[in-house]
Prior knowledge:
Rossmann fold
Amino acid sequence: MEFNKHKHVVIIYPHPDDESFGASGTITYFREAGVPVTYLCGTLGEMGRNMGSPLFANRETLPEIRKQELLEVAKVLDIEVKMLGYRDKTLEFEDKDKVAEHLKSLLEEIAPSLVITHYPGYAVHPDHNALGAAAVEAVKRMDSDKRPELWAQAISNDRIEVLGKPDIVIDADPIFDKKVQAIKTHRSQAEAMIKRMEQASESSGENEFRKRMRYEGFYIWSFDD
């Protein structure tokens, strides 16, 4: 994979931590190649149920905590973050055309050569599917001669059965420490999950966290003009 062939990468996901769990290995390789990365984050994840383990957040404090966690991750991954201002768990009810136009205006301003987002319908969470669909539509609406390549990340259990194997698979193993650092910086969301993975590792004798998080797969989206 020649990461330096791209001039600018834009990641479009709905929640703080989606970038770290889903694409921090890929992001790290792009940054090591000197490629700028901008994260367009849809919401503050203010409706998330995880509050740290042990608890240190509540419904009132969680939005600011998650915002600050994301800003710290931006330093860890050396990326720019733009917050889109949508409300968590409501993206499926937003007007898709309006969201797509919002994203299109940002993409035309940034002029990336690659956009990474969730694969609509195969991204489990309604926010993932909705923002992924709007991102695909935004790129589709761009002039074909300025349109960036688009990678869509599917995470549903049936993704390979329905879509086939991903076109691109990134092995984050060589820089896994950076991925772990990014994930752990989202402390409110990651602590409980990491504890569960550690317990599972003790039972199985394998590093379940590494096994689950090592590979990042993407499908190259085809646009029919």
